[in-house]
Amino acid sequence: MMLSSLFGLQLQVASPLLAFVLVASAANFNQDIQVTWGDGRGKILENGHLLTLSLDNSSGSGFQSKNEYLFGKIDMDIKLVPGNSAGTVTTYYLRSQGSTWDEIDFEFLGNLSGDPYTVHTNVYCGGKGDREQQFHLWFDPTKDFHTYSLLWNPKRIIFSVDDTPIREFKNLESIGVPFPENQAMRVYSTLWNADDWATRGGLIKTDWSKAPFTASYRNYKADDACVWSSGKSSCSSNSSWLSQELDIAGQQRLQWVQKNYMIYNYCTDTKRFPQGLPKECTAGAG
């Protein structure tokens, strides 16, 4: 249905009701997160304030949020696998269910000691992705925790690192570009072995003598998100993010990252799209 006069936006949502209520979040993994696989390799520690995922040559591990969300701003502090992480992939993403799922991806591709991680981003709608952008970072993401954020509102998706935007994907349904807005999604994270492709196209394999590999998480925040339950979406009373866009300073930071740290952009890959680049690329929204 269409809801008007909400922060000046026309919001199209799948729910029959978009309610605004105070949604409390204690930022506690015991309350907010469920470790879903790994046979003990995923651990919630420090009274719910720290979570670790581990990978060895038998299995990786993963977790998901207990809530589903239809639009939101999700923050997570992550310290990635240190040392020789080649072959490993740490993921942090939003995803819906079913064969025509929607998904908003951060993937962190490991590397040899001293070589930079690759931050892989993608947006899926209706089970179709192929919207990859990849970056290096301007710091070592294994030395300390850094905040990785996904802002998903009806007009745009913004990927940020330590409050610096690295990618914006705009809603261009008006010109026929699919945009994820009708399926509620959970937050997921996994640590797994992908040495058939993750590092230098699979040339560098996982060194299992360095196992277990461990990624650490803290300060999960989904206060600013619309919780989907019983067929409707309930948003927090502080919902200015529903109309949030990049200001001039944010646009300048985005341009700085993309000029200096972007290493792949599907919107410039003419060999991959010989019949023409996707519509969002020519419209400047990829």
From TrEMBL:
Please indicate if the UniProt record lists Secreted as a keyword: yes
Indicate whether Transmembrane helix appears among the record's keywords.
no
- Family annotation (Pfam families): Glyco_hydro_16, XET_C
Q: Supply the InterPro entries for this chain.
A: Beta-glucanase-like (IPR000757), Beta-glucanase/XTH (IPR044791), ConA-like_dom_sf (IPR013320), GH16_AS (IPR008263), XET_C (IPR010713), XTH (IPR016455)
- Cellular compartments annotated: Secreted, Cell wall; Secreted, Extracellular space, Apoplast
Keyword vocabulary terms for this entry: Apoplast, Cell wall, Cell wall biogenesis/degradation, Disulfide bond, Glycoprotein, Glycosidase, Hydrolase, Secreted, Signal, Transferase
Q: How is it modified after translation?
A: Contains at least one intrachain disulfide bond essential for its enzymatic activity.
Query: Can you give the residue ranges of the GH16 domain?
Result: 23-217
Q: What is its EC number?
A: 2.4.1.207
Q: What class of enzyme is it?
A: transferase
Task: Classify the source by domain of life.
Answer: Eukaryota
Say where the protein is mainly found: secreted
Using the record, list the residue span of the signal peptide; answer none if the entry has no such feature.
1-26
Task: Name the family the entry cites.
Answer: Belongs to the glycosyl hydrolase 16 family.
PANTHER family for this protein? XYLOGLUCAN ENDOTRANSGLUCOSYLASE/HYDROLASE PROTEIN 8-RELATED (PTHR31062)
Summarizing the function annotation, the protein's role is:
Catalyzes xyloglucan endohydrolysis (XEH) and/or endotransglycosylation (XET). Cleaves and religates xyloglucan polymers, an essential constituent of the primary cell wall, and thereby participates in cell wall construction of growing tissues.
Q: What is this protein called?
A: Xyloglucan endotransglucosylase/hydrolase
Source species of the chain = Hibiscus sabdariffa
